[in-house]
Fold this protein.
Amino acid sequence: MPGLLTSQNLTEMRYLVVGWSNLTVSRVTTLIEHGSSSVVVAGVNGLTEAEAERATAAGASQVLDRPFTVDDLTTLGREEVDKVVDGVFVTLPKARFIKEIEQIYNTCRRLRVPVNVADAPEYCTFTLLSSYAHGDFQLGVTTNGKGCRLASRIKREVVKSLPTNIDEICERVGSLRQRIYQEDLSEVLETAVGQEDDDAGQSREFNTLVLEHEETLEQRKKQRLRWLSQVVEYYPLSRLGSISVEELSREYKQTIKNENATVTSLPEAAPRGRIALVGSGPGNAGLLTAAALQAITSADVVLADKLVPEEVLALIPRRTPVRIAKKFPGNAERAQEELLQLGLEGLEAGEYVVRLKQGDPYIFGRGAEEFNYFRSKGYTPEVVPGITSALSAPLVAKIPVTHREVADQVLICTGTGRRGALPTIPEWVESRTCVFLMALHRIGNVVEALANKGWDLSVPCCVIERASCPDQRIIRTRLRDVAEALEAAGSRPPGLLVTGYACEVIEKLGSEKWRIEEGLGN
Ligand code: SAH
């Protein structure tokens, strides 16, 4: 028979966890996370010092320094409930401790103390759900003992289909209800109605709507609540997460007007803008993700970096307006502000704005700055990852950034620090591949700084420009010669520098100072 699902309030509760296994620590953590104020951990044969320490670190308020006895169930609890514990988790293996488990279970049953024995549903008066929490939203899944992995898988599937701001949705609806109860909404409504010739003698609750229809405050309140339940029932969840009290009150007023004080239908939901920050990969259209392609083909407007190449821009439908940031040296800030402004205008007009960014939005792309900006304006962006040039450019140049016994780490860094100064220069680590972005225009300074930091300048390195594009160019050389090589070849931005012995795992430089490979497929 399936059990009754409830959500238990654990505040002030004193739980006992008996036994020792990895599960013990997780039980303690779960209890503490859900507000239990004290958890006692006990072992049937006592606990070792290390076990006691781990239990305490997980939040246990007491650890028994002697073996557990069944009397502990009636002596370790809170004073106000005659010291009977509020609940018990047993984490003992059933095969070895069946006698103890039976004794604990029977005592708990008699005392009506909830008890849960790990992996032994026949000794449980309750079981835990596979759960998901986001703010005040919680979801629990159980298969009634048919398999906790299955429950967890089903939970993940359900969670995937939820709006990502489900926490905000709960919060928003909760505070609206609260405001209606407290009559605050009537004040908002009054303002929204814009009633100027307010009768000075009127009470705060007495708004125009009440006057118009000669209803009592109580009736009006009931009507508002009924209207709110309809909103909750019929509005798309995404809209519930973003609508403000003021907007709602305006719609409410409209509804009342349309329906002559009878709430029978909802007004059309005004379209609301949304935005995605989308990574466009290193340049080759084949390296766009399916999600990025979907975004650019369904956008109302695309705002692109100047680095996003023609081949990718060509995939944007002709009818879709495209704005490209004119980010040239000296006006980067202004260009960025202009783009943010354009984005906001699109959003306010209810459009789907796609902010297309070279590579991955969060690798030196100011992606998070934009995220925070739009979120502060009430539009939380969806972020679509992209293939970063930092990892794909080495690949197209036949450089495995990690390789057994050659490179056990890879570092992505910039050659340009704040306001054009040199950035923090990484330590020399022989087994590390370093990828320097935004470094080629000042390659001389970068090499000098590396030398000062003790780098071995004979290390192989590689300059990769316009990686993955038809005019891709690769310059293989050594750190000491790279500035000279680049000067001789002339620059072809965007490009980056890769250093480390990984550079010669597949392709080796012979006696020449540098070697240049032009185009794709070399
Ligand atoms: N978000 C981007 C990086 C932006 S910073 C990403 O994840 O790729 C801009 C720097 O990226 C350029 O200065 C250059 O160093 C590097 N870059 C971008 N595209 C490149 C490409 N196709 N080939 C080589 N380097 C590239």
Notes: The longest helix spans residues 94-111. The chain has four domains: 14-128, 163-186+217-245, 274-387, 390-518. Residues 192-214, 260-268 have pLDDT under 50 and may be disordered.
